Amino acid sequence: MRCPCFVVLLCLVSLVVPVFAQAARLPSVEVGVAKQDITPDYPCALEGYSNPANRVYDTVHDRIYVRAIVFRSGTRRLVLVSADVTGFAIGTHPYFEQAIMARFGLEPDELFLAGTHTHSSPMVILNKSWPTGNEYRFTENLRRKTIDAIDLAFRSLQPVKLGVGRGSSSVAVNRRLPVEEDGKLVTRLAPNPDGPVDREVLVMKAVRTDGTPLAALFDYACHSRSLGPPNKALSGDIFGLAEQFIEKEIGRGCVSPAFAGASGDIDPVRVVPGFATEAGQLPETVRMATLLGEEVCRVWNATEVSAMHEIESITSRLRLPRKPLPPGEQDNRPPIQLDIRVARIGNDVGVVGLNCEAFTEIGLAIKEASPFKYTFIVTNCNGGEGYLPVASAYPAGGYEVNISGFAPEAADMVVSKALALLRLVRRE
Asked: How many angstroms separate the CA atoms of 285 and 279, rounded?
């Protein structure tokens, strides 16, 4: 007669072996990466502030790029694009998306097209004559270079090992400062050390099968606008400079796409007029980019890797209420349509793409309740519908609330839908 312990062990083995057998049958995730230089050699108006016609760049401080990272598992593909531009708003996203999907046979949910949100890159615009006319030329070149980068990434698909790690950075700070003016509480655009902020730096590490570096994708919740309105130097700002720092530091062909997390109410700790600095000191923008880049490298080096299996993605379009008009005005406006795109890479990684500038509390709420160990929030993704504040921000007003078109309840609707989609791709 067999020992009861032996029977229990036999039962456990019979349960575990099929799990390992199933994992072995699943196709491993392959990855390909590429980047293309998109720096124009002709004058362009810089995007990100008012009166772009007055901000035609007069010098190139650092070159700007579009980076693509492609994931494939079986028949499923996932394409993440990070461009050193403000974003793909004012009708440009469909123009890019349609060309990309036609060229590569992608489904809409397989493409995350995002800008790093630098405020010192040329405008992405379809107007052929405004502000100078060269911006349309830049946009056409950007579309070609984006397709080239994706094509090169597809051509370089290869077996990899992947890992994800998290770090922390103090480069970002909340920028909604409550102050009292004439006995009334108002909100000013200024550093607020006591305001909510997401300091998490998420890093995805991809290495070839021989262990050599392939990619260092990272996500951080911060406006990439340490350079203020007076600046007329073309630059990728904090994210663009951090990307280049990481690629040089890790070396051996590593590509480092950056993605802006939920940062509608977040700025760098220092916003300066330009790259001017005292002798012997690093410019503030370079210093902050280096600090962020160093943290990404630290996390990348400490992150263990293994084979990942399966990718999945889904997209949903929400119809969100608009901010109410003043009393007495008839409101015939249609709801705002906001796209939420969600992907899964392996069992531990979720990605949420939002085509808006979501407040950091929205990203924090999604991360906290996410079924995934690591959740990348990507804003300025697949278009741009402006600022999405949380309901608690509306009474205090302020820049973002004043120009937002969303009603106060919209943020909670977005969080709820994003979590539902995450659970769906997690197959819970």
From this structure: 15
